[in-house]
Amino acid sequence: MKYHMENTEAFLRLSSVILLVLTALLVGLDHQTKFVFFAYRKASFDEVNALLVLVYVDAVVAGYNLVRLFGKCSMSAGLVKQNPQGSSLYLAWLSLLLDQIAVYVAFGANSAAFQASVIALTGISEFQWMKLCNKYSRFCLQMGGALSCGYLACLLLIFISFITAFNLFRLYSPKKLFLLKSISG
Amino acid sequence: MKYHMENTEAFLRLSSVILLVLTALLVGLDHQTKFVFFAYRKASFDEVNALLVLVYVDAVVAGYNLVRLFGKCSMSAGLVKQNPQGSSLYLAWLSLLLDQIAVYVAFGANSAAFQASVIALTGISEFQWMKLCNKYSRFCLQMGGALSCGYLACLLLIFISFITAFNLFRLYSPKKLFLLKSISG
């Protein structure tokens, strides 16, 4: 049963890595040149800070999950520790912390990029920010696909951090605070 | 010790409610009228979808936490269930789910509003979206304060959902998956 859960976690991590890389590629390779206002103008991801940040964040989070995936596999091949104590426990807390940071950073970057895209789609007439998606439609379509992938990856990351938290917290005693179960019985 | 943790949770919930209401008020009451381009123009939160969404989201999340706070207090006054079983367990899972939804919705809305504010602050010259904060400086300053409050509230909400997860997951057996500790010993 534990084996089953570790497989699920590995599958989720692998899927999230694929989705994050796909998001970064879709955003990073997104550009469109159009003849607007008597000149060729190019829409590219690096003109908007949020999209640039999203590409970097997704690449780093994908890398982090890849490292965790390999770490998990090499641990499974060796000795499986059912009940981590001491330094292993600190490691479990650290991995939960890193998982949580990964989720929130990826989710925040995705939401920021989503907002920039919404402004590009609708424009804000009061601020005289004109809409762009009627001109750069292919660019916007690709960005929509990228953001969908990004949100799906975030959902997987949330599940992963749930599993990490579950595996850590169930070691603790339900009656006495911060006492390990093996001690309290 | 359990009493100590419940007090911490109640304090965190109360603080998050205050911060969320403060954020919603700061955003909702933020407007500035200026004489620009031969006409009086007004910058207001309801011109940007992200800010409108942020006000509603923060109000709803604050309301949810207030309900949870009163629920917690009335439960503490009555019988404190150390080891929830059956329907109480489902309730604990539901409350974790709701806590998580509250965190992610509030964090996403805050990040979206942050991105809109960054565009207002810097502008994007390639898209001919001009910067606004040099004209509406007081408006932007108030928005900055509101978003800081919002991120602080998100941090508290993350801590709260950690406590909820800890209290639920430590009921489970560390050896057998999804088996309660009272059964497995």
Biggest interface pair, residues each?
A-B, 51 and 51 residues
Note the gap between the termini of chain A: 22 Å
Spatial arrangement of strands, main beta sheet of chain A: 1-2
What composes the largest sheet of chain A? 2 strands, antiparallel
Question: What sort of overall outline of chain A do the alpha carbons produce when their principal axes are compared?
Answer: elongated
Structure explained in plain terms:
The structure is a homodimer of 185-residue chains. By secondary structure, the first copy, chain A, is mainly alpha-helical. The relative contact order of chain A is 0.16. The first copy, chain A, has helices at 2-28, 49-77, 87-122, 137-169, 181-184, and strands at 31-36, 39-44. In chain A, a hairpin with a 2-residue loop joins strand 1 and strand 2. Chain A is built from 5 helices and 2 strands. In chain A, strands 1-2 form a two-stranded antiparallel ribbon. In chain A, helix 1 runs antiparallel to helix 4 and helix 3 packs antiparallel against helix 4 (137-169). Chain A has one domain. Chains A and B meet through helix 1, helix 3 and helix 4 of A and helix 1, helix 3 and helix 4 of B.
Characteristic key phrases:
two-stranded antiparallel ribbon, 185 residues, mainly alpha, 70% helix, CASP_dom (chains A, B)
